[in-house]
Design a protein that fits this description.
Shape: elongated
Structural class: alpha+beta
Strand order of the largest sheet: 3-2-1-6-5-4
CATH superfamily of the largest domain: PPM-type phosphatase domain
Largest sheet: 6 strands, antiparallel
CATH class of the largest domain: Alpha Beta
Number of strands: 21
Radius of gyration: 35 Å
Strand content: 25-35%
């Protein structure tokens, strides 16, 4: 590129040519910046062009590091490559430019008190004159661009400094854009890895089993991945084993220990050791392979449907709660510390109870530690109150409501609940299970299937039409408001009869809502398109939101008594 001698001419034509050349350089730099998001590549291209344009001997760009204590050369052009050289942010002319945020023009570097002469000594380069301009982004200095030694023994002029300041602006913008892009890519990568980790964890949770299977569980994580887990399995003699656990700490370390602890406890439980011995063996294994100071709170046990007897042992979890329709609440505290802390001299006591139509609740401290708006913990009393208020519901609805109640508070930790209860008294039949996309095109087929099962259940024509309209309103709300008309969203509809009640489970996978935020509207001031909840409220005997078993999305439960 030609030297910019015309910039110093009094000839208007030459000055105009110089301005056009500046614009051309800015355009070229902008195109280079668009071609790459590699900061080092961007800066190498920039300093090479600027050195040539400004007829200088050398040019370099220094960026502040993450500690904000050093300026590191990220690109240089000239006889000596100083890339990777680091200077203190308050050292030399570059440091002065960075700390003051003001451009510098030094015609004789050796007469400047801040000139760092040892750099010349180390490199063999001889600095005569210096131009420096700060790289500013959103009012903050992120680096410095430096140009050294005008060729042909001439000196930098004020207009050279103005040009460098002009060029510093797109360079700073390009650096920040590249950083934002890299951060975005890194965040996407981390999010993808966390999503995969969460899917792995979810895959370890037991699948849904139809009643009368006596164990139901649910879990919600406070962060991307969970340190909580639960599991249940059936042995050859019909006995059901169950596990619930909470790994200390958060993040990937805790989630990896969760996977290991869950698998270990399931493997040991298959041998049908008494619960105390079951935990003792797991504790020994975990202590032999210490996990960076992490530990595991866990409860394990068996339920025998033939004898209605539950036997369990609790190591560090909140108290176990028992509630039956005709008795008072009973609780049992943990009688042993968490697993993985101490290998010897530990005994794990066990408890036994005949359930007698009651439910045995195991939970992690995420439920008791959930905070309200006043930062008050729910404590065990809050959980017990929720259990009392929901004891007439099915087990799935009860644990869903416990989790939903926790979600209305601020979750400081993962929350998991496991319910052991005999379910022979619940006569349940699945009438319809449908999975479909959140598209209005699906509604016609879904209406037809709802009509079929409603007629089979014994509802008359008018009642069937009302049920169809209620479901239609609910599904339309999911499409419009939960998925915001994104037709790729998934919806699950399950219709059951439970004793003398028809129950509709409508589930989506959109961001969570809470039942306290959705209520029938004031009928004295009706608005078009906003009466769906009122219609559902008038047709159904009851409706409510609960948390799905896997903690994702929303579950709307509607009930209609069978006449």
């Amino acid at each position: 590129m030609k030297p910019n001698n015309q910039l110093f001419s009094n000839d208007p034509a030459q000055q105009s040519a110089g301005t056009l050349e500046q614009l051309s350089l800015l355009a070229d730099l902008s195109q280079d910046f668009v071609k790459s998001m590699d900061i080092n590549d961007i800066l190498r291209r920039a300093v090479t062009r600027i050195k040539s344009y400004m007829d200088a001997e050398a040019a370099s760009v220094f960026l502040v590091d993450k500690t904000e204590e050093n300026l590191v050369c990220r690109a240089s052009a000239g006889p000596v490559d100083v890339t990777s050289m680091a200077l203190k942010t308050d050292a030399g002319i570059i440091g002065r430019t960075f700390t003051t945020g003001k451009s510098q023009m030094i015609k004789d570097a050796r007469k400047d008190a801040d000139f760092v002469c040892h750099v010349d000594t180390l490199t063999g380069f001889q600095t005569r004159s210096v131009l420096c301009a700060p790289l500013l982004s959103q009012g903050k200095t992120i680096g410095v661009i430096q140009v050294l030694n005008k060729l042909n023994e001439s000196l930098f002029q004020r207009r050279d400094l103005d040009i460098l300041r002009l060029l510093a602006t797109p360079i700073a913008l390009a650096v920040q854009n590249a950083r934002y892009t890299l951060n975005f890519v890194e965040q996407k990568r981390i999010k993808k890895e966390l999503t995969l980790a969460r899917k792995l964890q979810r895959s370890l949770l037991p699948g849904r089993l139809k009643p009368p299977f006596p164990v139901v569980g649910s879990n919600i994580s406070a962060n991307e991945v969970s340190g909580d887990f639960y599991d249940y399995f059936e042995l050859n003699d019909g006995t059901v084993g169950f596990i619930i656990g909470d790994v200390s700490g958060k993040g990937l370390d805790a989630s990896m220990l969760m996977v290991r602890a869950s698998s270990l406890l399931r493997w040991i439980g298959k041998d049908k050791l008494p619960p105390g011995q079951w935990l003792a063996k797991a504790n020994k294994e975990l202590c032999e392979k210490a996990s960076r100071g992490l530990f595991v709170c866990a409860a394990v046990g068996y339920y025998d449907p033939k004898t209605d007897l539950a036997t369990w042992s609790n190591a560090g979890l909140p108290p176990v709660i028992y509630k039956c329709p005709k008795c008072n609440i009973q609780t049992w505290n943990a009688d042993a510390p968490p697993l993985g802390i101490k290998a010897s001299d530990l005994s794990f006591e066990q408890q036994s109870l005949k359930l007698n139509m009651g439910g045995l609740y195991f939970l992690t401290d995420g439920l008791t530690d959930a905070r309200n708006d006043n930062n008050e913990r729910r404590e065990l009393e809050g959980i017990i109150e929720d259990i009392k208020n929901t004891e007439s519901e099915s087990p799935e609805v009860r644990i869903g409501k416990l989790i939903t109640s926790a979600r209305r508070h601020k979750l400081n930790d993962d929350a998991t609940v496991l319910l052991i209860e005999r379910r022979d008294h619940l006569q349940e039949e699945v009438l319809l299970t449908e999975y479909f996309k959140a598209s209005p095109c699906q509604l016609k087929q879904i209406r037809h299937k709802i009509m079929e099962v409603s007629k089979q259940t014994g509802f008359n024509e008018q009642c069937c039409q009302q049920i169809i309209l209620s479901l239609d309103e609910a599904i339309t709300n999911i499409i419009r408001h939960a998925y915001k008309d994104n037709q790729q969203g998934d919806i699950e509809l399950e219709i059951k009869t439970q004793n003398k009640t028809m129950v509709f489970y409508l589930r989506d996978f959109a961001p969570e809502v809470y039942d306290s935020s959705i209520r029938p509207r004031d009928l004295s001031n009706p608005l078009p398109g906003q009466m769906g909840i009122n219609f559902i409220d008038s047709v159904m005997d009851s409706w409510e939101f609960a948390t799905p078993k896997d903690g994702y999305g929303n579950l709307l439960i509607m009930k209609k008594e069978i006449e």
